[in-house]
Amino acid sequence: MLLANFILAPLVMIALLNVASFEPVLKAGLLLFGLCAGAPFLIKLTQTSGHDLALGAATMLVLMAITVIYVPIVLPLLLSGISVDAWAIARSLLLQMILPIVLGMIVAKWLRDLTRTVQPWIAKLGNYALYVVLAATLIGYFPNMLDIIGTGALFVAIAFVVAAFGIGYGMGSGQDHLQDVGGLATAQRNTAAGLIVATQNFSNPNVLVMLTLANLLGLILLLGIAKLLSRDN
Predict the structure, then answer these.
(1) What's the whole-model pTM score?
(2) Is the domain defined by 2-230 classed in CATH 1.20.1530.20?
(3) What confidence tens digit (pLDDT) does each residue in 152-196 have?
(4) Which ranges does the record mark as transmembrane (predicted)?
(5) Cα–Cα distances in Å, from 11 out to 111, 167, 229?
């Protein structure tokens, strides 16, 4: 999964961006989409596909932890003409993603009754918060969205999601549940991490809008794929 998510999938995105011609800010948004792995929504996709939730959660945590180290190093190397503060990226990801997970694991370990009570509500709140952010971004930057639609960048996003699913599915071949979960894990990128990086390191809103649109299209596509996978599970 590390090879699929941090070597092969990013190479696919880089290859697609070399073939297509976009503004640097759109390339930045698509690169963010391609580099950030370990999406929390993988839990929902795993559940929808009828697979082992523990495997989905473990895969998500491993990919998310590596993303915090990987993105601050790789993103500045791939972006030309755009200045990115690697430490700012790492600090924001550590504080807003890793720290809450560590605190949650501590609470789950020592306050189990409390965890069982609040976890369903916190999970719903987290999902709704992400939906609100995505919807507010699309509504607030609607003119920017129209400009992006005409560039063909969304076709690159869709092609990447399909290719990434194929990579993850192939890398998990012969590993029972990991085949389907691996495909979903590789194709569903970590939009939460991407949003943190986009909002705190890029002044141009098109980076954020491009990332949001790519995630929305990928989400719709992967929910359909997960439903298809559930028929055999």
Answers:
(1) 0.85
(2) yes
(3) 899 999 999 999 999 999 998 777 678 899 999 999 998 888 888
(4) 6-22, 29-47, 53-79, 86-108, 128-146, 153-171, 207-229
(5) 43, 11, 26
